[in-house]
Design goal:
Elements lengths: L10 H12 L16 H16 L4 H17 L8 E4 L4 E2 L5 H13 L3 E6 L26 H17 L9 E5 L4 H9 L11 E5 L3 E2 L1 E3 L6 E2 L2 E5 L1 E2 L5 H9 L1 H7 L4 E5 L6 H15 L3 E8 L7 E7 L4 E6 L1 H10 L14 E13 H11 L5 E3 L10 E6 L1 E3 L14 E5 L2 H4 L7 H5 L10 H18 L3 E2 L3 E5 L2 E5 L2 E4 L7 H5 L2 E2 L3 E2 L4 E5 L3 E9 L1 E6 L3 E10 L3 E5 L9 H4 L3 E5 L3 E5 L3 E6 L1
Parallel strand pairs: 2-19, 3-4, 3-11, 4-5, 12-19, 20-25, 23-26, 24-27, 25-27, 26-28, 27-29, 28-32, 29-33
Antiparallel strand pairs: 1-13, 6-10, 7-17, 8-9, 11-15, 12-15, 13-14, 16-18, 21-22, 30-31
Helix pairs in contact: 4-9
The protein binds ligand UGB.
Length: about 600
């Protein structure tokens, strides 16, 4: 037991021990040998305790108290939504390319000058089963641009466009990492010169894991083989609020005149197509909280944005996680639960976890809460008596639960975008994706990449280019639409207006084609592409492209995800490009050029 060990501790350590003993944690020290034995291990144990204590708002004492309450609620089967009735909220719905959309998009670009971005990337992506970090995964394999490069180049494009010739402000980017992702994220950034950002523009904030709990009394769980180590697990993306607050960075942004904080996730290759217009909506409606949403299929594994009205009069617009929406609806007079309505979609818009918060209001709220987010616990019980767990559990929190503590005066809204434009995350491995019910999205590397080609094709069509119709093909057991493989740098196609200004005349792209536009000032006029065309140009090179490209191109071939001879990044998509022939040109000097194919 602790015995004489106690007297050898520092005053702070003694305080911590007293607190733990007062909170039912005697077992942590029960098997401790006398001083002189295992002293290094004991010191390491205190280091871990101190870390766990300092990284949770309110410390370990608050953690244990919260855990006891949530575990008791869970055991009693108490529903967190007791007393609340769900209804369909109202928000802004945008249709790509119409007048309203363009107005919001242009306003959003200007507003970006006052924005900061926060990328949550602490998750390992167990469901995807990819061995690297998700930020390093190519969003598409035509150019092999990885997710974080796409995000950074998009932010830089916004930065340039929003400064309108005035001296450029640097838009800050925070990346939340965890022990699972931190080292590899830093290495990826450093070895690629931060993909063009100033290193000082990027801040990495590492989230800590939280202690696991072994029983309903919230006893902290020790590792089975090591009595000097507490088991830990991720606490969830909700940590981002407490981390931002405690880092002090929000105040720095506020003092620098920033107004908006945009939160986003690690693997959505379409996201930045939706950012400018959504930011425009935030500014026009003066929303304190604006969540991006897409039409949602009933039972799809994304949360539903719901208005919850309490019998006592309280009301809030909040994400209800997919596993909770169905029981909540059934318990509130919708006997069929989470089902599609006549539109073919759930009446509750799907949360894509892209949040835009108004900075001043956000700081005000966090100075009350310290960034603590309403948590939940999800223990797997051994049996119906709910007295013991199959394995240890822990408290969790989600960043989209931030509005739960806001006062009723807060302006909480949402913006619904078309899915093809805004949302194609890469979360599921090939086997799980193949089992997704027909009609629901796969959210795999296969669908994520194909969605980028589809979006770019649809956008060019709307800009007047004749883009061939897609075909349906099966890769890794998933039926996807295959469109021409069109990609561009964010600087080229930041908004619909900018894209329209760069294509003119009679242009066409055939289905078997690849078109990669890698420079901001590439103008396409009377161009027909049937094959592969890659144009790379520095910022100051203005290139006019016309004529007819006709070559054998890049042929799409299937790859079996079980085929160990193929690289993992290709296996998880189920296809690769056989680069047979292409027209590839590079302009590395400033000037005006004409490429006539
Ligand atoms: N993440 C962290 O940074 N830290 C963590 O501890 C955990 C995750 P998942 P999830 O895409 O639209 C969310 O695991 O949680 C990062 C919403 O809750 O991919 O299952 C992680 O790196 C859901 O409502 O997603 O589901 C990643 O960037 C719905 O919106 C991000 O958090 C769904 O995402 C999300 O983690 C969605």
């Amino acid at each position: 037991s602790l015995g004489d060990n106690f007297n050898l501790l520092s005053p702070q350590q003694q305080e911590l021990v007293k607190m733990l003993l007062d909170n039912g944690q005697e077992h942590l020290f029960r098997d401790w040998p006398a001083p002189g034995v295992d002293d290094d291990h004991k010191n390491a144990f205190f280091d871990q305790l101190t870390r766990l204590d300092s990284s949770y708002p309110g410390g370990l004492e608050a953690y244990i108290t919260n855990a006891k309450r949530l575990l008791a609620d869970s055991k009693a089967g108490r529903n967190p939504f007791d007393g609340f009735t769900p209804s369909v909220p109202t928000g802004e719905t945008l249709a790509f390319g119409d007048e309203n959309y363009i107005k919001f998009e242009e306003a959003g670009v200007l507003e970006a000058r006052k924005a900061a971005f926060v990328l949550v990337a602490g998750g390992l992506g167990e469901r995807l089963g990819y061995s690297g970090i998700k930020l390093a995964l190519p969003a598409e394999t035509t150019t092999r641009t990885c997710f974080v490069q796409n995000y950074i180049e998009s932010i830089l494009a916004l930065q340039e466009a929003s400064s309108q010739g005035e001296s450029q402000t640097q838009i800050p980017l925070v990346i939340m990492t965890s022990d699972d992702t931190h080292g590899r994220t830093l290495e990826l950034l450093e070895s690629n010169s931060y993909f063009g950002m100033q290193p000082t523009q990027v801040t990495l904030l590492k989230q800590e894991k939280v202690a696991c709990l072994e029983d309903n009394d919230a006893r902290l769980a020790l590792e089975p083989q090591n009595k000097y180590k507490i088991q830990t697990k991720p606490h969830g993306h909700g940590d981002v609020h407490a981390l931002l607050y405690s880092s002090g960075i929000l105040k720095v942004w506020y003092e620098a005149g920033l107004k908006w904080v945009l939160f986003f996730q690690d693997t959505n290759g379409l996201l930045f197509k939706a950012i400018p217009s959504a930011l425009g909506v935030s500014a026009a409606k003066q929303y304190h909280v604006n969540s991006l949403a897409v039409p949602r299929k009933a039972k799809e594994a994304i949360g539903g944005i719901t208005r919850l009205t309490h019998s006592d009069g309280r009301s809030m617009v909040i994400n209800v996680e997919y596993n909770q929406l169905d029981p909540l609806l059934r318990a509130s007079g919708y006997p069929d639960g989470d089902v599609d309505c006549e539109t073919g979609y759930s009446p509750f818009p799907g949360n894509i976890n892209q949040l835009i918060l108004e900075l001043g209001h956000y700081i005000e709220e966090l100075s009350k809460t310290g960034g603590a987010i309403q948590e939940f616990v999800n223990p797997k019980y051994k049996d119906a008596s709910k007295t013991s767990f199959k394995s240890s559990t822990r408290l969790e929190c989600m960043m989209q639960d931030y509005p739960k503590t806001l006062p009723p005066s807060a302006r909480v809204g949402f913006t619904v975008m078309e899915t093809w434009l805004a949302y194609a995350p890469v979360k599921n491995n090939a086997e799980d994706a193949a089992k997704v019910p027909k009609g629901n999205p796969y959210h795999s590397a296969t669908s994520g990449e194909m969605a980028i080609y589809r979006a770019n094709s649809i956008i060019l069509r709307k800009a007047g280019v004749q883009v061939a119709d897609p075909v349906v093909q099966v890769f890794n057991g998933q039926e996807v639409e295959v469109w021409p493989r069109i990609t561009w740098k964010p600087k080229w196609g930041l908004t619909f207006n900018r894209i329209k200004s760069k294509v003119s005349g009679n242009c066409s792209i055939s289905l078997r084609s690849t078109l990669a536009i890698k420079g901001p000032n590439i103008f396409i006029e009377n161009l027909s592409v049937d094959g592969a065309l890659i144009i790379d140009a520095v910022d100051d090179a203005e290139v006019n492209v016309s004529g007819s490209v006709q070559n054998n191109g890049w042929v799409l071939e299937t790859v079996d995800y079980k085929d160990a001879s193929e690289p993992e990044v290709l296996r998880i998509r189920g296809f690769k490009f056989n680069k047979i022939e292409q027209l590839e040109t590079k302009y590395s000097e400033p000037g005006k050029f004409h490429l006539k194919a």
